[in-house]
Amino acid sequence: MTTHITELLSALGVSSSAFTGGTLNVRSPIDGAALGAVHEASAEDMRAAVARAHAAFLDWRNVPAPKRGELVRLFGEELRAHKADLARLVSLEAGKVSSEGEGEVQEMIDICDFAVGLSRQLHGLTIASERPGHRMMEQYLPLGVVGIISAFNFPVAVWAWNSALALVCGDSCIWKPSEKTPLTAIATQALFERALARYNAAGGTAPAHLSQLLNGGAAVGEAMVDHPQVALVSATGSTRMGRAVGPRVAARFGRCLLELGGNNAIIVTPSADLELAVRGILFGAYGTAGQRCTTTRRVIIHESIHDELVARLDRARAQLKIGSPVEAGTLIGPLIDGASFEAMQTALAAAREQGGEVSGGERALASQYPNAWYATPALVRMPAQTDIVKHETFAPILYTLKYKTLDEAIALQNEVPQGLSSAIFTNDIREAETFVSASGSDCGIANVNIGTSGAEIGGAFGGEKETGGGRESGSDAWKAYMRRTTNTVNYSRSLPLAQGVKFDI
Ligand code: NAD
Predict the structure, then answer these.
(1) Which of 116, 254, 323, 484 pairs with 42 at a CA distance of 20 to 30 A?
(2) What's residue 4's pLDDT?
(3) Long-range CB contacts (< 8 A, 24+ apart) of 63-68?
(4) Cα–Cα distance between 479 and 477 in angstroms, integer?
(5) Which of 38, 40, 107, 149 to mutate to test ligand 1, by most ligand atoms within 8 A of the CB atom?
(6) What pTM value is reported for the model?
(7) Which residue, 325, 254, 309, is CA-closest to 99?
(8) Is any atom of ligand 1 closer than 6 Å to the C-beta of 154?
(9) Residue 501 resides in a domain
(10) pLDDT digits (tens, 9 = 90+) for 268-322
(11) Which regions of 352-428 does DSSP assign to beta strands (E)?
(12) Within a domain: 385
């Protein structure tokens, strides 16, 4: 494994000094093998990085946006050229199966393409003024330094969602990745530096330190969160993290974009195409070993089809191939670490206590991989939506619930504190439209006849309630990375006041 990782990182432009001799030990969730020891930044390093980033911002904000887009275009080219290697590294460090590792890098490429187009579309409005000889307009201008905190389960795509937009918006970036996945971050940074060098060699004027990477744990993140020159903190991770970060940023009147935990449900109605529903639920619940913010954690099934659908899910669940994520045919890779496996066992014990009937959920492949943590996917038949069902356990556990009326199903779906993703499987147009209406799902994402996970970058991504309320990626999410100014221009020879106010001298 170690020789392999050195070759892989070298192909991505990373020298061995970047991942050896440090204090942050990196282990592969596949087999527990050591992958490297990365240098950790201190809080003081972070403060110095923010000062450098601010200087970079002062230059970058004056580069025309379409020219900023050219840098992101070149970065997208680097990603295309190195897709296979970076995807492999995602699998080795985060434990994602190969097609999901590739999908993650594809998502980075997609957001770069989106951002390049956006760089020619950063538009404001012209608004009718009530005063003669006046014009009122709105502009979006570069915001400042954007701090990006990311989680282990999307070790590189989440950074790209933020940085591709921030860079075309004229901001500089600082990235504090998960302490569990520093190598993918180092490799991504190397590809970005390569793009930046090509950009400047071709006559571009990108400043040094435009996008910096600082590895480390929560303390380094906190130094970023507290720094008054970080205009926007975009933080992805658990609700616990958001609860710590949100108030600290608010205390200094900074801007925060929070992308936190989910507890996503699929409702299956009597008219649903069960074939589609089974496939959507299985991928949603057990893909990425249940470690997606959009993972399906609850399925709410009409009583008339409940027993049949649960039996089908249970049979299919038991056949999903568990194994090393880099082996062909594997559908379920490892949990990120032993603490995750423990959290899964604790949740299953609580579910049993609260009346649940558990299938699966045991440790798997322990003799082959004694230092890694694989689990069989769990299905838990719950008599009601008890406390444990309302809690996000970041593991492959699917709770099944029964309903009688659609109102009851929607109430169950909305009853949890999180509000990220949701779906309904139905062929009844009234049910589908009700679900996406004002009295339907209260989530940021509400789908019909597809599952809860696997969003495209064109839409705005994020959720309500304890998910944090942030939106990133597509649609008009770019506005979070810019400051809006309203400008009123008087081209007349008089000075009328608004609302007819008189102040004659
Ligand atoms: P985590 O909260 O443990 O860590 C996330 C990041 O926050 C890490 O970089 C960590 O170092 C940092 N951090 C933790 N405490 C901090 C603090 N006080 N100040 C500053 N930074 C701090 O999450 P995780 O285990 O890496 O990821 C899993 C969680 O992330 C799940 O809850 C999942 O739902 C969520 N997630 C949400 C989204 C989304 O878009 N909504 C996407 C991916 C993951």
Answers:
(1) 254
(2) 86
(3) 63/170, 63/205, 63/206, 65/119, 65/120, 65/122, 65/168, 65/169, 65/170, 66/119, 66/120, 67/204, 68/119, 68/167, 68/168, 68/169, 68/170
(4) 5
(5) 149
(6) 0.98
(7) 325
(8) yes
(9) no
(10) 999 999 999 999 999 999 999 999 999 999 999 999 999 999 999 999 999 999 9
(11) 357-359, 363-364, 374-375, 378-381, 397-403, 418-419, 421-425
(12) yes
Judgement on whether residues 314 and 428 belong to the same structural domain of the protein: yes
Write out the H or E segment, with its range, that includes residue 279: helix 274-286
CATH number for 420: 3.40.309.10
CA–centroid distance, residue 258 to ligand 1 (Å): 10
Handedness of CA 238, 234, 179, 85 (dihedral sign): positive
* Closest ligand 1 atom number to CA of residue 295: 34
Rounded Cα–Cα distance for residues 430 and 438 (Å) = 13
What distance in Å separates the CA atoms of residue 317 and residue 326, rounded to the nearest whole number?
20
* CB-count exposure of residue 130 (10 Å: 0-12, 13-18, 19+): exposed
Which amino acid is it at 11? Answer: A
CATH code of the domain covering residue 479? 3.40.605.10
Query: pLDDT tens digits, residue range 351-406?
Result: 999 999 999 999 999 999 999 999 999 999 999 999 999 999 999 999 999 999 99
> Whole-angstrom Cα distance, residue 19 to residue 46?
19
Q: For the chain, first and last CA: distance in Å?
A: 82
> Does 38 lie in the same domain as 60?
yes
At 198, the amino acid letter reads: R
The yes/no answer to whether this complex scores an ipTM above 0.90 is yes
175 lines ligand 1 (CB under 6 A): no
Q: Is 264 in the pocket of ligand 1 (CB under 6 A)?
A: no
Decide whether any atom of ligand 1 lies within 6 Å of the 225 Cβ: yes
Range of the domain at 428: 264-448
36 lies in the same domain as 157 = yes
DSSP 42: P
